[in-house]
Specification:
Oligomer: single chain
Shape: globular
Helix content: 55-70%
Number of strands: 0
Strand content: under 5%
Radius of gyration: 17 Å
Order of helices and strands: HHHHHHH
């Protein structure tokens, strides 16, 4: 990928995260509408991670983007309930590292690029979720405590990923 394209993608990802989070903070939409803003920000976070992992095939990058969204499939049953959750309600317990473990194990056993990408994308999803909303019960079933970090830490991680993905050495190669 050309340096200008990488920079444009990184800036586009940052703009997506910023626009989504600014809208979510200022407008405070109902839970059912939050996904319209949150999902593009999850994709952007996954893309920033993927831009920083060099040497992986296209199928890995595609699976990483899928993984950055797939964790929210557990929201479907919540959307079908008569009473919808609020933005401050805890996330389902399936938002935990235990959900990533079988995918990561299968990736290790099969050496599947797609499964490696999927597991990485799921972790990118949690990177965002620990900073927005009510946090994530990452260590469930060991504990039901939600892990939450300051939003500024997530934003700093996104900025660092974007900066790193756009770095080019004098000979034209990308920083590894």
């Amino acid at each position: 990928m050309r340096p200008r394209t990488r920079k444009a993608l990184a800036l586009g990802c940052l703009a997506t995260v910023a626009a989504a989070d600014l809208t979510l903070r200022r407008r405070k939409p109902p839970w059912i509408v939050v996904g319209l803003f949150d999902h593009p920000a999850h994709l952007a976070t996954g893309a920033l991670v993927a831009l920083n992992v060099r040497g992986r095939p296209k199928r890995w990058r595609q699976a990483c983007l899928v993984g950055s969204l797939i964790a929210d499939v557990d929201h479907i049953p919540m959307a079908l309930r008569p009473e919808l959750p609020t933005i401050d309600d805890p996330r389902p317990v399936s938002h935990c590292l235990l959900a990533v473990a079988p995918v990561a194990a299968a990736a290790g056993l099969t050496q599947s690029e797609r499964l490696h990408g999927l597991a990485t994308g799921m972790l990118a999803h949690y990177l965002r979720d620990v900073a927005v909303g009510s946090g994530v019960q990452l260590l469930w079933p060991l504990t039901s405590r939600s892990v939450k970090v300051p939003y500024a830490a997530y934003l700093a991680a996104c900025l660092a990923l974007a900066a790193r993905s756009a770095q080019v050495l004098p000979d034209g190669r990308h920083v590894r």
